[in-house]
Structures are given as structure tokens and as C-alpha cells.
Amino acid sequence: METNIQHLEKELSQFCGSQQIFTLPLCRTRYTEGIQYLAQTANAFWLLTDASVMGKSLRDKSRFITIDFKRYTPSEVETHGYDAAITYTDGNGTVLAKQQYHFTDFPLEQIRLLFCGQYPPIALRILKWSRGCPNNPLEHPLFHFS
Predict the structure, then answer these.
(1) Residue 92, domain member (yes or no)
(2) What tens digit of pLDDT does each residue of 24-60 get?
(3) Which residue from 31, 100, 29 is spatially nearest to 69, judged by alpha carbons?
(4) Domain that includes residue 27, residue range
(5) pLDDT, tens digit, for every residue of 85-95?
(6) pTM for this model (two decimals)
(7) Smallest Cα–Cα separation from 129: which of 53, 68, 59, 42?
(8) N or C: which end of the chain has fewer CB within 10 A?
(9) Please, which residues have CB within 8 angstroms of residue 5's CB and are 6 or more apart in sequence?
């Protein structure tokens, strides 16, 4: 399992920007090749759908939304009563919403995605995976508006 996670992290590190844009039919959210790879490889279309629905519902509060998935440690599971959470912020630390998950098979401990756009184009992108999500995503080298 650890080898698969390391492989996924290595592959995700190769995505920066996108030459091809995909569309989630349900929400008509546009997303990058990195998101497509993540959804297919980690069987995480649920994450794409949840992030799209919540991102669109929060876009009147912020045009820039960070989406932070975090899988809890066993001791945190005991405290929170959930396996994982997704926190939606404005990128400046203001929490806009939080979703808790009783079960997840998502392979990464954490990942940060970006949802941007008031009206089309609306894009979902990967900002950071696994450990060490930056406090300010604009400082991260994978951050691009194109």
C-alpha cells in the first residue's frame, strides 16, 4: 500500500497547469489533468463531486476556495468520531464549510485542492498532496491561473 501511495505522490508531482481541461457532467465543473489522474488512480470521483458541489455552493462567499482533505489518525478518529474531513476556506484561514466522513478509502493522508471562479471558467486544481500543505497556497509552485 505504501508503495502505491508513494507512486501516486510521485505522479501527482508531475502535474503543473494543464494542456487539457475535463468537465464533470453533473456540475459542469472544469478541472485539470492532475485532478483527472487523481480521480481515476485513487478512485476518488466522489472527492471531485463533493468538492465541485460545495465549491459552487460557496462561490458567493469567495471566488477562491481551498479544499483541504485530511484523514484523521486513529487517536483523532476517537476524538472526532469520523475517519476524515474536508475543510473549505477562502485561502486566508476563514473556514467557509466543513464536511465530515465516517469512512474513507482515499489513499493520501491529506491533499489541498483549489476551486476558483465566480462564473465560468470554474476550475478545480491540485495545490498540494500528502504532508506539508502550505498555509498560503499562493506561495506554492503548483499554483497557476491559466
Answers:
(1) yes
(2) 888 888 888 889 999 999 999 999 999 999 988 998 8
(3) 100
(4) 2-130
(5) 999 999 888 99
(6) 0.80
(7) 68
(8) N
(9) 107, 108, 130
